[in-house]
Amino acid sequence: MRIESPREFERLGAVRIYGLQKVYELDAGPESGSPEGGEDSVVRRVSSEALHEIESQMAIVVPVRNERLKLIEGVLVGIPHDCLVIVVSNSPRAPVDKFFLEQEAINNFCRFTRKQVMVVHQKDPAIAAAFSAAGYHDILDDKELVRNGKAEGMIMGSLLAKMAGRKYVGFVDSDNYFPGAVNEYVKEYAAGFCLNPSDYAMVRISWHSKPKVVENSLYFAKWGRSSRHSNMFLNKLVGHHTGFETEIVKTGNAGEHALTTDLAMSIDYATGYAVETFHYVHLLEKYAGILTEGEGVGEDMHRMVKISQIESRNPHLHEVKGDEHVEDMIAASLSTIYHSKLCPESLREEIEQDLQRRNYLKEGEQLAPMRIYKSLDRMNYDQFFATSEAAIRAAGGTSLTVPVASSKPSPVEPTPAETAED
Ligand code: GDP
Ligand code: CO
Hints:
By secondary structure, this protein is an alpha/beta fold. The chain contains 13 helices and 15 strands. The radius of gyration is 21 Å and the shape is globular. It is an enzyme of class 2 (transferase). This is Mannosyl-3-phosphoglycerate synthase.
């Protein structure tokens, strides 16, 4: 991949937010002897070997809820072979057992590709019991099962990535129409980790365009209403604390993102539509050195948190499920900024006025805070791994099909057929 070096970055304490990086070539060829694209050049080349090296240490979490099997399969087709795929499904099991159909389709796919895929159901009681045993109760509902939601699925997936010993964890939605786009996202995650390496690194994708039909022809829109809002207010937040107006943040709503597993374990998560925007807010709360008190603040300030933003080339097209939730998305994202201790009074007022202008909030009404899950590093991992493994064995090894690795990926690649019998 050939990719622009970040031209600028904003620094707040240990957090570095790099400017958007443009992709010049999706495939820039293998390692060559020539010294092309050194650290100081404007455009950097990441060889296919270097990408591959990162991919083999990455897990890709694919959250699923009631998607068409053809779409899920297309997404799997796009994920590079060496990534461990973790499908976290919250599809209904009755009256039709959709999850069973997904498992079957995925197993079939694995038979041809020999890809490593872990398929789990969000409501698997074994996983819920493991969360409980490990002392992480917040994620469980009143039936003692993991709550509904994509964020909850992502949290589960991240933990399974850790359990499988993967160093990086990335996310791609299961309703993407283009396998080529999925493939590109994962390559860009790898390129971002290569170019801006750190134990605490995050890569976020900004879509180049989103095709829409306008007056009977295709129009390639760049920014949705919701991302425009999140970016604008996040930039105001950053600008307030640096004292300089900025447009650095372009990925306030990036569903497509990846991070080091260590970072994934150390951050809090918001739920619903707020999860991606909250990444920025929380990273600044925890690592920017602005807040002086509060849980976790000031920890690990010696680690550099690097946020890369990469502009993808494929158009992004996913299943259309109606546009009615845009207002909710905006409110949820802004709520994480509004309720942060970092948010100055003036910005709070601006957010209120914005939401009132769009009739989302009435005069005197308050923006509801989002549910926040505390970081996973406070749970007892050994207990989680031991309980889930034991429960799955006792149940005859139904859904969780990857062996527990301690710190490194297992050198032996289990084929799906073998692991299913474990
Ligand atoms: P949008 O793209 O933001 O409009 O949201 P989608 O409805 O497409 O959801 C994003 C992704 O999350 C899709 O792949 C969904 O299948 C998946 N998803 C939605 N809800 C849940 C859930 O409760 N659990 C899991 N595991 N995945 C979910
Ligand atoms: Co979608």
